[in-house]
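Exam prep: given the inputs below (a chain plus magnesium ion), describe the expected output before reading on.
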Amino acid sequence: MDRLSENARLMIVSDLDHTMVDHHDPENLSLLRFNALWEANYRSNSLLVFSTGRSPTLYKELRKEKPMLTPDITIMSVGTEITYGNSMEPDNGWAEFLNQKWDRNIVSEETSKITELTLQSKTEQRPHKVSFYVQKEKAEEITRSLSSCLKERGLDVKIIYSGGTDLDILPQGAGKGKALAYLHDKFKAEGKLPKNTLVCGDSGNDAELFTIPDVHGVMVSNAMEELLQWHAIYAKNNPKIIHAKERCASGIIQAIGHFNIGPSISPRDVTDLSDSTLDNFDPAYEVVKFFLFYERWRLAEIGKSELYMANLKAVCSNSGILVHPSGIEKHLHDCVNSLRTCYGDKRGQAFRVWVDQVLPVQVGSDAWLVKFKKWEQSGGERVCCLTTALLSSKDVTVADGLTWVHVHQTWLNEASPSSSADWLF
Ligand code: GLC
Ligand code: MG
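Solution:
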């Protein structure tokens, strides 16, 4: 992880199902609120870590279903697999470490004798994780007997019961907490320990995360009884752990505010985006704000005012060009004209726009090159453009906002549309 030249301002380590991702929120509003906050305020100086029980296969499926950001680090299969970056480069050192006193054949052999255990799907059986379903009432007893029998066979395992149904058997050194401790050690060795770490979870396999020294923790409002019970027994007096009042990603935002560890107002909660009180030019915020406006305009969530169009033209350079993903060059002012005619065209529809990995690089005293992924979901179709924008602060004030000088877009592999006619920018 060498994206950051100094220690991260904040490292968020979040579980996915029912924590970052709310499966009871078909509009994904809390997730989209978090996304906008992260991209506007944290992406360039912080680290986003997803820590899930899912295998790489099910993790990738979830990413296709939900508008999730791309994390810097992905911890999968209950802390048994750590990968880095967009290419998901595996941490082989971690995998090797987990081989200690572990033999999945012995685990399979012993568990096959227990009729109450139902093996989970093939995708969820991993080199350092064997997973079952088991009834709540049986879980404790089976955990006890399995622990002692596997110990007799020379193994040192960790058995975790989660979600009131899942039983995972892992090497003792594994688990979400141990994986986080390993990352902390790694960053420490490089002199880059994050200034703050916030762990976020809702169920049994997340409990370990809350035991890591010095971390802040949030159990989202919808956390399961098993985690709340664990907290009541082991961590009740720790002021660095809260039980949020809000569900899922909104609970994470609430915790950032509660612990005062950084900005906690999502741009999605700001109704009047033109009313920003920035101290400095802020290209990432500018990008987030622009596409939020774009979404609201097409959904007719804001008034149909010519003033908006005039303001948009004012922040687009007169000679500014968009290289459209279809390969056609357009004047930015013509793009604004096209947008004018699209007011409310997505009204009442499942239409959402979000940006991912907004990374600005200052390329001159008054110029920034901002790279990001711009996603657009319309009904069932989801498309994305890798986008590069040149923004300039020449001859404008912070209050005016940066000028868009040049925008270049290319369809993201696997996320190109059936027809590119509908894409504005
Ligand atoms: C995820 C995994 C499953 C695991 C559960 C609890 O649902 O897919 O294998 O048992 O998390 O950790
Ligand atoms: Mg969960």
